[in-house]
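ARCHIVE RECORD
Type: protein–small molecule complex
Small molecule: magnesium ion
Source of inputs: curated submission
Record status: active
Notes field left blank by submitter.
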Amino acid sequence: MTAICVANNKGGVGKTTTVVNLAAGLARQGHTVLVVDADGQGNATYALTGRIHPVPSLYDVLVDKTTIQQVLWTTNEDNVWLVPGDARLQNIDVELAARAGREWKLAKALAGQTFDYIVIDTPPSLGVLTQNALAAAHGVVVPISLTEFSLIGMDKLLATIDDLGQELDIPDLRLLGILVTFFEDNKLGRETYGILEKKFEEQLFATVVPKNVKLEEAHRRNESILAFAPNGPAGQAYAELAREVKKRAGAEQTPYSRRRAGAR
Ligand SMILES: Nc1ncnc2c1ncn2[C@@H]1O[C@H](COP(=O)(O)OP(=O)(O)O)[C@@H](O)[C@H]1O
Ligand SMILES: [Mg+2]
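STRUCTURE (tokenized, with ligand):
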């Protein structure tokens, strides 16, 4: 089981879109995939099922009211399951503040699952939900919107992920890659991409997700881009990303049970 967290403290960079379509891509390559919606906006939940703020959800798992098994849903995408999120997650920082081991709730809850991949969506912040997602993950995918591109913000984010890894004592948490999204093939787009390529070198995924309105249309229909427009540029990009993530994540993962042993 390989767990992947998609994180960036900026909103609107394509995190949820990447979670949903990376999951669909992996599923269509023959794997079982669990999506965990750790964002109180519940966008991944909506995109995969059409439901809005269902209860119970991941929230109830994180506050020890229920188990993952009780909130495990099928989705509109074959071989993709979902642990939904709802709006109550937005206040969970406060509720978990006094609880010991609050960053490890998700990792503990997921231990024992047998999906090939777990893909975790996160809110646009580095609060306790993102910390839980990182603590539960082997690798992080960081989407960066080429239109909202900010190198300074990016450095800080990567440093913060590093710090969190050390603070939480998860030395094998690694950056799987930085994913360029909203790419526009014009002079400015190519120039910006060139700067990123120089700066991040092989940390950058070779796959680039184009700016493409079909991605938004697919969300509205509660379908992945691989169901809605598999042969378009966005569909091809996410299929390719799934192959690249698989390669980068590799096979030799720290067993989940051992990571969990670090849980306090
Ligand atoms: N590559 C893209 N091209 C065009 N629209 C996109 C693309 N990726 C995401 N979107 C749309 O942009 C909005 C923000 O994307 P989203 O994945 O929700 O970002 P985040 O989860 O980081 O806030 C959504 O409406 C989504 O449908
Ligand atoms: Mg989102």
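CURATOR ANNOTATION: The pocket of magnesium ion (ligand 2) is lined by residues 15-16, 39, 41, 43 (CB under 6 Å).
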